[in-house]
Amino acid sequence: MKFISLSWFDLALAALLIVAVAGLSLRLQLGLGKQVLIAALRTVVQLSLVGLVLKVLFENVHILWMGLIALVMLVAAGYEVVARQQRRFTGWWGFAMGSSSMFVSTFSVTLIALTVIIRPDPWYTPQYAIPLLGMLFGNSMNGVALGLDRLTQTAWQQRAVIEARLMLGQTGSQAIADIRRDSIRSGLIPIINAMAAAGIVSLPGMMTGQILAGAAPLEAVKYQILIMFLIAAGTGFGTLAATTLAARRLFDQRHRLRLDRLK
Amino acid sequence: MSSDQPPRLRLEALSTHQVSAASLEIPPGECVTLSAPSGAGKTRLLRAIADLDHHGGKVYVDDVECNQWDAPLWRRSVALVTAESQWWCDTVGEHFTHVESPWLQALGFERHILDRQVAYLSSGERQRLAVARALGNHPRVLLLDEPTASLDEENIHRVEALISEYRRESGAAVFWVSHDAAQARRVARQHFTITAGTLKAVSQ
User: Fold this and answer.
1) From the candidates B59, B88, B133, B145, which should be mutated to test the interface with A, based on the most A CB atoms within 10 A?
2) Where along chain A do its domains lie?
3) pLDDT digits over A72-94, tens only?
4) Chain B residues 140-199 with CB within 8 Å of chain A
5) What is the pTM of this model?
6) Which of A43, A170, A208, B107 would bridge with A165, disulfide CB 3.0–4.6 Å?
7) Is B2 contained in some domain?
8) CB distance from B90 to chain A under 8 Å?
9) C-alpha to C-alpha distance for B198 and B22, rounded to whole angstroms
10) ipTM, 2 decimals?
11) Are B183 and B5 in contact (CB under 8 A)?
12) Which range marks the domain in which residue B88 is found?
């Protein structure tokens, strides 16, 4: 199949649609016109920069460059997890728990996918490794952020219940078990919904992109199925690890509920 | 109880945010009341004894210091009943590790109350059941933080009678926070208050 290349003029035409939305917002006094234009500008700048970085990476394939990119993604995702918390852990704990759980889940799943399933040569070929890491980080970050937010918020609201359970002789882990279970569930619901709706309610972005780029639909579908399974695994492991670490941090050695560790 | 037995509960210079160097001994089977204005630190003191909050000083049960106990075991031995009970499962029975029918009867319930949904109980019923639930671990010390504040007179007497019987039979020490002077006189002979951050004995 033929891939139709886009010119900057084509993109400028698409930008006219954004300008139309901004104009409509101005007319209806929605107060969103400026925001829409700034967001569109950020999309252009950020994606162009990423495009340049990827171009350089694809031309200079080296494991160290890949490692550096992965590290930058991890740190950014860790900060994003902290930023999405209404009640954050004091100090570096929030960042450390979010990024370490994503490190373990995302890196291990990506490594398995690259070395066992897709097997490009070399295994860290950026064309495969970067999109995989990006999609896994993006989704597991959502799961971890949702799970942690639910855990800390509910622990804060249900302090009396948790302490009543402690007073019956439960350990911290037992006293917060129900809340932790709900938190893991809320972290996993987006990917479960995405898998359930894939192909019926929505056509996943990566598959659509591959088809637009000229890939055979069945090949694109196979990649999409693989990606969704990897995302579900990465999000599941990441959310499980993050909520386990956070639930432990909410108690001290004497099994006291330590809400003073949140701010 | 013989007089050479160690105190069931002993506080040694126990300090919280509001109370400093509180010392107290409650022999087995005895009850002591605590009354003080709101914000004086009564609840904090009970939470410190229950080891729910970090605290200074020491707390002993049967001469064994709190930190020498496994924390969950400590809280099974030192039960705390708060003014507002908390429930987290659907049915009453799911919250009990152990319950004896005479306790339920003493509080005006039949055993089938354990099958009832918590959501359909009144606050008074929940509060009385919370007292029975606290006895389920056979605690050596009972910390009662205004447990009868939401109860009518008949049920206040039921709770007082059950607590009194339990401490007589088990030798448990009871530390009872109450604003009701008449109740304090009914349940204990020794009374304490908190004045300017200090725990003091009062005579009635």
Assistant:
1) B88
2) 1-60, 62-261
3) 999 999 999 999 899 999 999 99
4) none
5) 0.89
6) A170
7) no
8) no
9) 7
10) 0.94
11) no
12) 26-40+76-202
